[in-house]
Amino acid sequence: MPTLDLVFALIATALVFDFFNGFHDAANSVATVVTTRVLTPVQAVFWAAFFNFIAAFLFGTGVAKTISDKLIDPKAVDMYVVCGGLIGAIVWDIITWLTAMPTSSSHAIISGYAGAAVAHAGWKAILLKGWIPVVIFLIVSPIIGAVLGWSIMTANSWLTYRTERYRAEKRYRHLQLISAGLYSLGHGTNDAQKTMGIIVALLAAAGHEQWGKAGPDSFQGLTGKHEIAWWIILSCHAAMALGTMAGGWRIVKTIGSRITPHLRPEGGFAAEMAAATTIGLATIAKVPISTTHAIGGAVLGVGATRGPHAVRWVWGEKIVWAWVMTFPGAALIGALGYELAHWYVEPLIH
Asked: How many angstroms from the chain centroid is the CA of residue 265?
């Protein structure tokens, strides 16, 4: 197989991962608005896909640059490392989707990528400085989401204290359309950029770095300049949207009803606003955050306003364990994927 064919095959594989990201992770974009029955599943998917897509035009690509340049030494990356990282992320997403665990596709891809890079070049491939903010947000993002979710839900209760229940619920059903859109917008600003960064790293490793750079039509987004070619940006957003429409509903059920039962529109609004704010802070800092962490923590915070009994803590515990296992699990599969790529692909080239 010619090298150029391999490049195109790996780009296609990266888009397959983005599809699985939508299949697995982007379901979080619609979980609360579907559970509260403000939108039907089909309506919610198109609502989320629209805001995911327009995020490509509103925000810069700083998160993608972090993925491609600041976590793994670019000198330690070749096409087999990228291939191994994608295998690690895709396999881990399939495993956790089958068990309905809303783990982070973001952490799966960076862990699989890191595992493949270590298998190729040893621990020196890891740029520790770049991982510090990732680890910090791993810990604080669900906490920020929970605190904001609790705070917004408490404020909602005070603001509607003297309002008849059906009037308050009608108001929040309208407000949740806005909060769901903002959450999906935040999801698009951060999550879709992970695959963009991987494709840019692949093109650089293959000697086609210019293919991934923005042309003269690049413009300034709200949080930074677009530095990546439009064909990469748009194809990644399209793949994620298709994945969301294809079947992320197992994760929707876990986020929307298993963590805290009987989520209502005011709770959905609070959770989505809390998660959107958390993701926005990370995007401004150009840190690849887990949107699953953000919305999971926010839903826990909302549920806690009704007392400890309103939260099914066993599901929170399962989710935390799944999050913890993502780093070593995806990294190990990524390392194995790197070895498999050498075993099967390299002989075809040489």
From this structure: 24
